[in-house]
Each structure stands twice: as C-alpha cells, then as structure tokens.
Specification:
Elements lengths: L9 E5 L5 H9 L4 E5 L2 H10 L4 E8 L3 E2 L1 H9 L2 E10 L3 E4 L10 E4 L1 H6 L1 H6 L3 E4 L3 H11 L4 E5 L1 H6 L3 E5 L8 E9 L14 E8 L6 H11 L4 E8 L7 E8 L5 H13 L2 E9 L4 H4 L9
Parallel strand pairs: 1-2, 1-3, 7-8, 7-9
Antiparallel strand pairs: 3-4, 3-11, 5-11, 6-9, 6-10, 12-14, 12-15, 13-14
Helix pairs in contact: 8-9
Length: 297
C-alpha cells in the first residue's frame, strides 16, 4: 500500500474524466474516490479549501521535462509532498470511428502530450494545436463529430468518448514516464515526513544571494555531507525580475543525519529554504507495474 492511501478517501486530479492523471491515479490508489478538477490552479484551490483530502499532481516527465505550473503552485500554496508515483506513458492518436490518419488535418492535446509525441506528428505531417487537457481534447473531438480532427490521449479517454485508436504507442521515447506527487494540505514539518524502509527522497526549493559563488556554497552543503542531488532546476521567482528559485531533490529522508546537517547549513547560508516534503522514493516503472496509458492530464 502507498502511504498516501492511508490518509485519503477523496483525491483530486487535473483534467476531465478519462484524463491521463485519472488513469495513473486509479492504478496508484485504486480504493480512493478520484475527483476531477479542471485545471492545476483549481486543484490546488480545492486542496486549500478542504474539498479533497489530497491532490495527485504531475510534476515531471522523463521526455518533456518539468510541469512548471505545478512547481510554481507548490511555492504559492501550503502543501506537503507525502509521496511520489512514476507512471509509464503510452500515447494514442484518437479519432472519430471510420477515420484514417490520412483524413486528419489537426491534432489537439495538452502541450506536454504534444511535446512527447512531436516526432510522430512531424513524420505523419500532422498539424497540432494545444488544448488545456488530453481527455478534454478527446471529448472535444467526439463532440465535433468531424473526421478531420484527432486527439492525443489515453485509452481510457478514447473508450469514454467513443473514439477509435488511429495509432498506438506514438510517444517519442519508449521509456517515457511521468512523475506525480501526492500532496496534502498544510506545510511540511519534520513530523510529517513519511518514512518507510524504502530509500527516501526530500524535495525542496531555495534561493541564494545575488553574489559570486552563492550557488556553489549552497550546493557544497550537500557535497560536504556526501548527500546526492538527483535533480536541480532553476525557475524565475516571480517576485523580482531575474531572481531565481532552485527546485531540488536530494536522496535521503530529511531526518537522516547527513541530510539533516546539509539542510541546516543550507538554511543558515541562504535567505529562503522551503522543504516541500520528505517521502519514500518511487520505484522505477518497469520494477513495479505494467505500462498503463497515462502521463499528463
């Protein structure tokens, strides 16, 4: 059982029913009530308002990179990461019954899904247009009843909206996978660390002073303690032009001696350090489950 399942009955995901996020959520937590929320901003608002117990949020794709809106929202809202889930991705090209790929003049989907299938769409000579949601794109194609339109989405969306699979497995990377966070309301505190016998991971965001060597000094806090960083990414702070925040994942729980020492020194040296959560690291997809269509909402 995933630790997040012990404390949640209603878990929100971004997208209309049939979204990739719903497909991944029902695999990860099959016993919870999956609640559809239109946008990521609405999902965080629902978490703040207590309308859902947890939010299931896509944060990173192995091919297309970070879901930047999700990381920005984690800075703007008090939410704690309880765990992560890595879901293999299989994209489908969906169209109206009776349609062929040669009939299609425009393909709709979420920007992340379009990025993950760009090679196929380019080779097939298909023009694409971003849509707010993959399953929403499938729903729109079904409502228009026009064989010239298609959507990149998952099998669940195709089944739900009565579409035909025109092409299967069109993702550019065969090992494409999306990483999700389980978020609970309220800020992280040490006692909210979800620690098991599995290897741990701690996610945080920090800023540095705008002077030479400040980033090196920040990262040295981890190297001195022999703590490995599995991810570092900079994002505009949105508070001041050309000021950046550094989103970081480190291996180990925040309570581990060396991780704790590194975080303490990082906090001493830098003006802003915010721990998003400390939780069991997810296993790689191939080690845990068969491929299920799903990736981003």
């Amino acid at each position: 059982m995933i630790e997040a399942e012990k404390t949640a009955t209603r878990v929100g995901y971004q997208g209309v029913p049939g979204a990739y996020s719903e497909e991944a959520l029902v695999v990860a937590l099959p016993k919870v009530e999956a609640v559809s929320v239109r946008t990521l901003a609405d999902l965080f608002a629902a978490l703040d308002a207590g309308e859902i117990d947890q939010a299931f949020v896509p944060v990173e794709n192995s091919h297309a990179g970070s879901v930047v809106e999700a990381w920005d929202l984690m800075v703007d809202h008090d939410a704690c990461v309880l765990g992560e889930w890595i879901q293999p991705v299989s994209h489908l090209l969906l169209g109206m019954p009776g349609a062929r790929v040669s009939d299609i003049v425009r393909v709709y989907s979420h920007p992340q899904a379009l990025a993950q299938t760009a090679a196929y769409l380019r080779e097939a000579g298909l023009d694409s247009e971003p849509y707010y949601d993959t399953a929403g794109a499938a729903q729109m194609v079904a409502e228009h009843q026009d064989r010239r339109y298609a959507a990149v989405a998952g099998r669940l969306a195709g089944e739900r909206y009565g579409l035909t699979v025109l092409a299967d497995g069109i993702q550019t990377s065969a090992d494409n996978a999306t990483r999700f966070f389980f978020l609970a309301p309220g800020p992280w505190r040490m006692e909210r660390t979800v620690q098991t016998a599995a290897p741990g991971k701690t996610s945080l965001v920090f800023s540095t002073e705008h002077r030479p060597g400040s980033l090196v000094r920040a990262l040295s806090c981890f190297s001195r303690e022999q703590v490995n960083l599995s991810r570092v990414e900079s994002r505009p702070s949105r508070r001041k032009p050309w000021e950046y925040l550094f989103f970081t994942d480190v291996e180990g729980y925040a309570s581990d001696m060396h991780v704790h020492a590194a975080l303490r020194e990082l906090t001493r040296l830098n003006p802003f350090v915010h721990i998003l959560g400390s939780y069991p690291a997810a296993l790689e997809p191939a080690e845990t489950r068969q491929t299920v269509d799903g990736g981003v909402a």
